[in-house]
Amino acid sequence: MPISIEIFNPANGDLVGTVPDCDADAVGRLVATARESFEKKTWRGLAPSQRERILWKIGELLLEHRDELARLISQETGKTLREAAGADVAPAADCFRYYAGWVRKLYGETIPVDGPYLNYTLREPVGVVGAIVPWNFPLQTAAWKVAPALACGCSVVLKPSELTPLSALRFAGICAAAGLPEGVLVVATGYGETAGEALSLHEDVDKISFTGSVETARKLLKDSAVSNLKRLSLELGGKSPNIVFPDADFDAAVRGALWGIFGNKGEMCTAGSRLLLHEEIHDRFLAELAAKALKLRLGDPLDPHTQMGPQISARQMDRILHYIALGKREGARLICGGERDTEGAKAHGYFIKPTIFANVTPEMRIAREEIFGPVLCVMRFREEEEAIRIANGTTYGLASAVWTNDLKRAHRMAAEIKAGSVWVNTYNAFDSGSPFGGYKQSGYGRDLGSYALEQYTNVKSVWVAL
Ligand code: NAD
Model-level pTM? Predict the structure, then answer.
């Protein structure tokens, strides 16, 4: 029998639940279940309109259970209830309704080939998909993979983070209640090195759709190479530049910078962790931003007045504190935060004060490595070219933002920045219909929109001699 994993609430250390750590045998049984449902066509054999209705229903049920799911996610991750409901449950529900609409629109082409042939293409499901997801937006990232995979007719083994398995299990229960046939979506709880590795090495998994760190992505690539060459799509980390020009709407840009880094307590792959300020506005902007950061209310994530919860785990908190110490050693100027918040009941949780470093240079490690916490690195620039050079001077390329009222400059910057998303005069805008993914070591393949369908289908060319 696999050993159990205990899930603790990072705000107060309370035990929230336990789940099994699936070993290779347990994962093998789950893959076999998913394979059987795929081969027996229990899902892909249903009428498309029926599959469409079931996916839509999953979206509806997720919204019906929004408060319950948000509470569970908040207890697992430490994010506020508002963030859990608005940025995890709501987009997950929307994602299912969006992909419900694709079920009856997935078709091939007839191609005008030379010779006496009819040639046409079929888009077929890839088969059994392993969806390996992280803990920071547990339901949203699961939906980004499960919804399009199901729309394409695949069966899915979902491997949630070892820190957030409870919401994944509840999610699978909701999918079943909506009418998804048994075995089409199964959940392999467990650690990365047990359940995750068993899935990525499995010979009968056709594809892994992954969201997580670069380090794990390298292992998945090796696992694929030494097993069945299963295909991979990778959504990885980021060190996203948030660039403010002097002609920007100042207040909007300050708000964008604040929530770009302190939203979800900085545990966001798209966090605007490098703030590039034009020298004309640098000092005023920094003062305003720091004043707002100091006022952010940290506390119990279930309290509706709380704006920032604790980091997800002691490990994550220690990692962030380590980077803060490094920033000080590297010579960056600490503007605010820079330590744990242990006031009152917060002493029982993993709270870190919103932290801003100024005088950061592109060579510093705090400017190059993903911290994945509430730590902002502020840099100064003078010329547009200099901003582009700093923005692109990283191994990552996930997201970015530009704040300016100069239309031409906005489009020039959007074209020059090497990142999968560029936001102009906004931050963290998402829609189920718009593709999301990375350049460079932020990964490849796209979630969301029509682009995600490529991940879960094979194209077959059929030749008929006439
Ligand atoms: P992680 O890579 O440690 O874990 C992600 C998932 O992979 C978890 O389910 C984990 O159990 C599993 N895993 C770990 N080792 C494995 C192995 N050897 N084989 C198979 N599976 C394994 O990442 P994390 O700490 O959970 O999440 C934080 C990272 O995720 C950050 O780098 C962040 O930027 C990234 N992230 C990216 C996006 C995106 O869309 N680009 C979104 C959210 C998070």
Answer: 0.97
